From TrEMBL, chain A:
GO terms for molecular function: ATP binding; ATP hydrolysis activity; magnesium ion binding; phosphatidylcholine flippase activity. The chain crosses the membrane at residues 276-298, 318-344, 867-888, 900-920, 950-973, 988-1007, 1019-1040, 1060-1083. Its EC number is 7.6.2.1. It is found in: Membrane. This is Phospholipid-transporting ATPase. Belongs to the cation transport ATPase (P-type) (TC 3.A.3) family. Type IV subfamily. Its cofactor is Mg(2+).
UniProtKB/TrEMBL annotation, chain B:
Keywords: Cell membrane, Cytoplasmic vesicle, Disulfide bond, Glycoprotein, Golgi apparatus, Lipid transport, Membrane, Transmembrane, Transmembrane helix, Transport. Its main location: membrane. This is Cell cycle control protein. It is a multi-pass membrane protein. InterPro entries: CDC50/LEM3_fam. The chain crosses the membrane at residues 76-102, 359-381.
Length: 1106, 396
């Protein structure tokens, strides 16, 4: 985290005086030095250890370590705990250190960047970290902005400058910033050096698009807005140089304020794992209590009598105290049921899976040169459990490459053919070049009547395109004469301006006060009086321009719903025709906008201009007052027509959706588009089909009507019961009392719900009805939804269905949804990288989603489940042997195994094979999981690892421990070596049991591994080999001679493993452990094969025959 | 804890990554824009797409490892593999089991309890009147008859029951350094030996509870021949310990034992110091006394036997122990009644797989039979219920 060492005394406002370091220092503002690193060389060890010991697991093991130092309790040597703990701690520490090293590097790089600071009238080079609040710095073209600056002056006219904010909000188009007019006149250095204005503004915050402040200079007040600010992280473009006053520095900048911690997501397996670990703790305590009671009884009945040979330890004077100590001793030796390496191993496996996602060539898009990226490494297995996908439409299902396709001008519709029709090539693409040398050669249009209409000079058509060429916020660049490049914030705007360009109304350039166009070859410059900007609430934008003749006109374009309400009543007839056209376009899946204008008299303009200025200057509720002012002027407009823009579907979307719905994943489309467009896209991407029993549309405006709609849906759903042929999957909605009707419907239904109805449906009293209805439907489309509603819908499903949700989107409006879903996927596309930055996974094509879920997700889930099952199994098999031994050793907490074996079992002998399985295992090849989407279902139903599976693993582990203890016990108690020496000594018993354990768990991992790569072979055989090698080394004479007190087992390995009886015992124990498992698994595969078993078998037979 | 930290890492990675990516992109853009400047003297509004030629393809490598296409063996549990496995296990285990059972049955074993719990037992009085301080050893004799002759070498064991040699505090109560002949450990034994670390201010050698509780009954065996005369059966006391114990683990602190153990005390329960354990054989004294070594190898279970003596086969013609009457003469030094312990003497012959061990054979036969039986049952089930052997129809 950034170090907020500086505590500004004044929380409400910030005062900055230019060129006055002494004055500004009083406030102790943060310097421009950023520090994202956490440690330095000295603090690393203590701070890192402190952080690590804040984890419960690590503290637990530390606690065990302390217990072990008490001689009366110590049942294990200190190193059996410290070695694994040190290993785990050092792995984490190394990772932390590496991370921090890179942070230091990047901090240094950033802090040491040079910038030119105006000090005492001279420009001096300073490092970024030495820049102070109140300094004036000079920026040159293509330089990064060093801190949040108030733009004072620029080399361009009107104090304008251009910035790119990709770093900040991901938008790649250029933005204009303008200085306050008084400062823009300051111009050169000398004037600036004497500038002593004082800025009073809001304290640091993370709102990127807002700034509120006032400049006091020469006894005058000037309002400052975001329009005057250059934020850190932006890059200066197309501007030779500019000067700015540092307002916020370092950690106070909006960039740093925004890089707050993201909400952490946990997988359901994580939560289950934590629960299970708690249960295991409980189990551990129970075992401890049982054995302590046993100890009490034993010490009373036997131990007290046995004191002639084995007196009690000095502090122990009665059996109860002995039992108390024995409890702790058993907690120590049974601690291995709570596996210290579990969390580290899980992290390693997930990291491996993330790399596989990053490396997947089939999720690489060569057009945009983007590979898929797992931005989070902790969610992989949840990708295999997704039940609901919430998808944005534009840019996610569609390409977000807009083409101007149709339009309606004055009741006349043009452009008959959508993209799909033109593929046949019957229609000739219009060639604009003879008519218009400025035309964009890439523009396609297929209806020459429109061009004719322009050519003959139809005034409506001309006004229509004039509007398109004026009413927008596009920036243009003219590389060479006639070679125009438009930079638009949204692709729709770009498409419309390009259309106007080709039809002869070419937008050439803009300044803050003018727009220059070429209208059918004639250059025209309009005075730009006002821009009434677009936002999600207004859903429209307007410009007010004065043409060269002096006439003032307002041009407005916007969503038909809002615009048609604001027309002059005389437009009624035209409006009806245009509405029909709009509906037609929407039905074709096109995005529509309505266009209108209004003539303003000079007086009207003056009056409104005054009220607008008032609103603009207001310090409180400025936005609201501005909106009200806009509302006031956008009235009584004259309808010009409507445009229709086609947004092509992305490649492979219908196929992906089909595959995903076969995998029983419900796909909900949440879009801001209008209902008809959304429904149409629904059809074209096969979410909605003609085979569907019914598509319900809910568009009520009131609570009652929405409720009514739901009721009727429920009823119809019931009627549809008989008609549905195939047995629909039983719905698992927890049925709310009134609407459990929906549970037994079958047949396929779809639900389309409008934004305003959704607002009612999301209210507390109706949400259950909405959820149950929507979940009964195969496809759900929510249209006209706001970003907030998107998130609310996701939260609703999360709350009521307890299902794993995935949200996928590409734009800033999807960020909330991406953040609230269990898994957020960002499409790196046309709309910047905000969605990607908020996401957990990102790639560039919607169709990669099927591979992400059905292949990577499925495998991750499968691997993680198998890993966990085996992990718990092996630890229980290992540890519970001590429990049984307790009944034979007077509950004295004597371990069965050598202490070195206990130390190394989890970290050396059994760690790698299970890791290899967790990383590499595959049950069916990747193509198969795409061919048979039903293979995805076990993950959704959480079949592979749940409490039941956990208990089975535990039971198997306990069974194994029983066999591993009692078989050697029964065999060895009477057996002797071939020299007559009995085999029932403790060390022989320990070696036999340990060897049998290692062999049994190795055979078990061999059974569990379905995909034996070279790594699995190396790790399994290597682990077995390492066991024998290490054991022989530890039992060797050499080591004993050096440390006779540490290696008690000298010679045990040799003398034990040379005995045929020992090997017969191990073979017997292995057979007894494995045969039932084998029989059980065979029966399962043979009698009740899972789909994966069948597919796997099928794949093998195919491979065999080909 | 863990969770928050991961969270932080993630955020940092994001932050750094974003920065790096950003600066790379900017660099690429600047490169293109400068190129453009040189060419046409204009500012270029370089876009990130314009830099495609400069940016290296990020396409992941097409290696089998990265694409998860490593060649792999993919075993499946089919009837063709599992059922034969069951039969094979059965067919291997049953003969082994029979072999083990037969050879175990051929082993002669005789066991006699001489604790002296019953009044009828000759050792009853010895057991009852035991006192740690008595100077005269109590001797008792048990008569027994061997119904069958014991051919080949016979091994003589003493067995103890309800004796917890595997108790944690007992097991650790020793000093292996001392037993290995380490001088400093001899004078300053490990703390683990408490409360048998020192006595009368002198370090105990050998220290600890195990050594202190050394089994010190003396057993002697006599054969009563047809003339009713007692013939001593020679008992060999060498070769009863592990080779590594005798030659590596246990070492005397010096050649001259009396001198070497100067300044140490004997364990409190012992009658003689460690260097006088075997008066008959000077090389069998000190820490390398085999009886001592055998005792120091602690047992895994509370009922155990330890090798006491070996009765060597004399000739090929006569059995080592012919059938007939025998007398076991016990010098009763070792009290076990106080904790309800039992003492036994066991005579046993040995086969290739060690002593008498019926469990192993029976277990093998049982497991083998169950496997075979399971194989048959599974075969029947497979044939009766499995109609989907051709998996052409995969439900979708």
């Amino acid at each position: 985290m950034h170090q907020h060492k500086q505590k500004p005394k004044n929380k409400e406002e910030r005062r900055v005086r230019a060129n006055d370091r002494d004055y500004n220092e009083k406030f102790q503002y943060a310097s421009n030095c950023i520090m994202t690193s956490k440690y330095n060389i000295i603090t690393f060890l203590p701070v890192n250890l402190f952080e690590q010991f804040q984890e419960v697991a690590n503290t637990y093991f530390l606690f065990l370590l302390i217990l072990q130092l008490i001689p009366q309790i110590s049942s294990l040597s200190w190193f059996t705990t410290i070695v694994p703990l040190a290993l785990v701690l050092s792995i984490t520490a190394v990772k932390d250190a590496t991370d921090d090293y890179f942070r230091h590097k990047s901090d240094n790089q950033v802090n040491n960047r040079q910038s030119q600071v105006l000090i005492r009238g001279l420009l001096q080079n300073e490092k970024w970290m030495n820049v102070r609040v109140g300094d004036i710095i000079k920026l040159e073209n293509n330089q990064f902005v060093a801190a949040d600056l108030l733009l004072l002056s620029s080399s361009e006219p009107h104090g304008l400058c251009y910035i790119e904010t990709a770093e900040l909000d991901g938008e790649t188009n250029m933005k204009v910033r303008q200085s306050v007019s008084v400062t823009s006149e300051l111009g050169d250095q000398n004037n600036l050096a004497s500038f002593d204005g004082e800025v009073v503004c809001e304290p640091p915050n993370n709102k990127l698009d807002r700034f509120c402040g006032t400049l006091y200079w020469r006894d005058k007040k000037y309002t400052l807005t975001n329009q005057n600010m250059l934020l850190r992280g932006c890059v200066l473009r197309n501007t030779e140089a500019c000067y700015g006053l540092v307002i916020f520095a370092g950690p106070d900048t909006k960039l740093m304020q925004n890089s707050g911690r993201t909400k952490f997501k946990r997988t359901s397996i994580d939560r289950l794992m934590n629960t299970l670990v708690l249960w295991i703790f409980g189990f551990l305590v129970c075992m401890g209590v049982i054995l302590a009671v046993g100890n009490a009884v034993w010490e009373r009945e036997v131990g007290s009598l046995f004191q002639s040979y084995l007196p009690w330890d000095p502090p122990v004077d009665n059996f109860l105290f002995s039992a108390f100590l024995s409890f702790w001793s058993y907690v120590i030796i049974l601690n291995t049921v709570v596996p210290i390496s579990l969390y580290v191993s899980v992290e390693v496996i997930r990291l491996g899976h993330s790399y596989f996602i990053n490396w997947d060539q089939q999720m690489f898009c060569s057009q945009c040169n983007t590979a898929a990226e797992a931005r989070t490494t902790t969610l992989n297995e949840e990708l295999g459990q997704v039940e609901y996908i919430f998808s944005d439409k534009t840019g996610t299902l569609t390409q977000n490459i807009m083409s101007f396709n149709k339009c309606s001008i004055n009741g006349q519709t043009y452009g008959k053919y959508t993209h799909t029709h033109t593929l046949s090539g019957r229609f000739i693409r219009l060639d604009f070049t003879p008519f218009n040398p400025l035309a964009d050669p890439n523009f396609c249009f297929y209806d020459d009547t429109l061009l004719e209409s322009v050519k003959v000079g139809d005034s409506h058509t001309h006004e229509f395109f004039r509007l398109l060429s004026l009413c927008h916020t596009v920036m243009s660049e003219e590389k060479s004469e006639g070679e125009l490049v438009y930079k638009a914030q949204s692709p729709d705007e770009g498409a419309l301006v390009t259309a106007a360009r080709n039809f002869g109304f070419v937008f050439r350039s803009r300044t803050p006060g003018t727009i220059t166009t070429t209208e059918i070859g004639r250059p025209v410059t309009y005075t730009l009086l006002a821009i009434l900007d677009f936002n999600n609430i207004r859903k429209r934008m307007s410009v007010i321009v004065r043409n060269p003749e002096g006439r003032i006109r307002l041009y407005c374009k916007g969503a038909d719903t809002v615009l048609l309400e604001r027309l002059h009543p005389c437009n009624q007839e035209l409006m009806n025709i245009t509405s029909d056209h709009l509906n037609e376009y929407a039905a074709d899946g096109l995005r529509t906008l309505a266009l209108a204008y209004r003539d303003l008299s000079e007086d009207e303009w003056e009056a409104w201009s005054e009220s607008h200025r008032c609103a603009d200057k207001a310090t409180n509720c400025r936005e609201d007052r501005l909106a009200a002012a806009y509302e006031e002027i956008e009235q009584d407009m004259m309808l010009l027509g409507a445009t229709a823009i086609e947004d092509k579907l992305q490649e492979g979307v219908p196929e992906t959706i089909a595959v995903l719905s076969l995998a029983n994943i419900k796909i909900w489309v949440l879009t801001g588009d209008k209902q008809e467009t959304a429904v149409n896209i629904g059809y074209s991407c096969k979410m909605l089909t003609d085979n569907m029993t019914e598509v319900f549309i809910i568009r009520g405006h009131t609570v009652q009507s929405v409720r009514q709609d739901f009721r009727s849906v429920s009823l119809e759903g019931q009627e549809g019961d008989g008609t549905g042929g195939e047995g629909g999957k039983q719905l698992q909605c927890p049925p709310p009392p009134p609407s459990n009707l929906m549970d037994n419907i079958s047949g396929e239904f779809a639900l389309v719900i409008n934004g305003h109805s959704l607002a009612h449906a999301l209210e507390a009293d109706m949400e259950m009805e909405f959820v149950s209805t929507a979940c009964a439907c195969k496809a759900v489309i929510c249209c006209r939804v706001t970003p907030l509603q998107k998130a609310q819908v996701v939260e609703l499903i999360k709350k009521h269905k307890k299902a794993v949700t995935l949200a996928i989107g590409d734009g800033a409006n999807d960020v909330s949804m991406i953040k609230s879903a269990h898994i957020g996927v960002g499409i790196s596309g046309q709309e910047g990288i905000q969605a990607v930055l908020a996401s957990d996974y990102s790639f560039s094509q919607f169709r990669f989603l099927q591979r992400l879920l059905l292949v990577h997700g499925r495998w991750s889930y499968l691997r993680m489940c198998r890993f966990l099952c085996y992990f718990f199994y092996k630890n229980f098999a290992f540890t519970m042997v001590h429990f049984w031994f307790g009944f034979f050793c007077g509950f004295s907490a004597q371990t069965v195994y050598d202490q070195y074996f206990i130390t190394l079992y989890n970290i050396v002998y059994t760690s790698l094979p299970v890791l290899a399985m967790g990383i590499f295992d595959q049950d069916v090849p990747d193509q198969r999981s795409l061919e048979y989407p039903k293979l995805y279902e076990p993950g959704q139903l959480n079949l592979l690892f749940n409490k039941r599976e956990f208990f089975i693993c535990i039971a198997q582990g306990i069974y194994t421990s029983v066999v591993l203890f009692f078989v050697p016990c029964a065999v060895l108690s009477d057996a002797t070596q071939s020299t007559g020496v009995p085999l029932a000594d403790y060390q022989t018993f320990a070696v036999t049991t340990a060897t049998a354990l290692v062999i049994v768990v190795s055979v078990q991992i061999a059974l569990d591994t379905g995909f034996w790569t070279v790594f699995n072979h190396v790790f399994v055989w290597g682990s077995l080999g390492s066991y024998f090698t290490i054991m022989f080394a530890l039992h060797s004479q050499t080591l004993f001679k050096i440390f006779p007190n540490q290696f008690h087992f000298v010679g045990s390995a040799q003398s034990t493993l040379l005995q045929p009886v020992v090997w017969l015992t191990i073979a017997l124990a292995t057979a007894i452990c494995i045969v039932p498992v084998l029989a059980f698994r065979f029966l399962k595969v043979d009698l009740k094969p899972q789909l994966s078993d069948t597919v796997r078998k099928h794949t093998q037979t195919q491979r065999f025959y080909h | 804890g863990e969770i928050n930290k991961t969270d932080q890492h993630q955020y940092y990675n994001e932050w750094i990554f974003g920065l790096e990516k950003g600066s790379k992109r900017i660099a690429a853009m600047m490169a293109t824009s400068y190129n453009a400047k040189e060419e046409d003297g204009h500012h270029s509004g370089a876009s990130s797409h314009g830099a495609a030629g400069v940016v290296k393809s990020k396409k992941p490598d097409n290696t089998a490892f990265k694409q998860q296409r490593l060649p792999a063996w993919q075993p499946i549990l089919t009837a063709g593999t599992v059922l034969p496995a069951f039969f094979v296990i059965g067919l291997i285990f049953i003969p082994i089991g029979i072999g083990l059972y037969v050879s175990s049955n051929n082993i002669k074993e005789f066991e006699i309890d001489y604790t002296g719990v019953d009044i009828s037992n000759p050792c009853y009085s010895c057991a009852k009147n035991f006192s740690w301080n008595s100077t005269t050893p109590c001797v008792c004799s048990m008569n027994f008859t061997l119904e069958q002759p014991f051919e080949s070498n016979v091994f003589m064991y003493y067995g103890l029951s309800n004796f917890y040699q595997n108790h944690r505090r007992y097991v650790k109560s020793r000093d292996d350094s001392q037993l290995n002949g380490d001088q400093s450990a001899l004078k300053n034994p490990s703390k683990e030996c408490e409360p048998y670390r020192t006595s009368d201010g002198l370090p105990i050698a050998p220290c600890g509870a195990i050594a202190n509780s050394l089994f010190n009954d003396t057993l002697e065996l006599y054969h009563i021949d047809s003339n009713n005369t007692r013939n001593t059966i020679p008992l060999v006391k060498k070769g009863i310990a592990w080779w590594t114990d005798k030659h590596v683990k246990f070492r005397n602190p010096g050649e001259n034992l009396t001198a070497a153990f100067q300044g140490t005390n004997k364990p409190v329960n012992w009658r003689k110091p460690v260097y006088e354990l075997d008066p008959s054989d000077p090389d069998n004294n000190g820490f390398i006394n085999e009886d001592f070594i055998v005792w120091m190898r602690t047992a895994a279970l509370p009922t155990f036997r330890k090798l006491y003596r070996i009765i060597q086969k004399k000739s090929n013609t006569t059995p080592t122990l012919p059938s007939g009457k025998y007398v076991l003469e016990i010098t009763y030094n070792y009290p076990v009644l106080s904790f309800d312990g039992r003492k036994r003497m066991i005579l046993s012959t040995i086969s290739w797989m060690g002593g008498k061990n019926p469990f192993l054979g029976i277990a093998y036969i049982t497991v083998g039979s169950i496997c075979f039986f399971l194989g048959v049952v599974l075969l029947i089930i497979h044939h009766k219920y499995d109609t989907r052997s051709n998996s052409a129809d995969i439900p979708n």
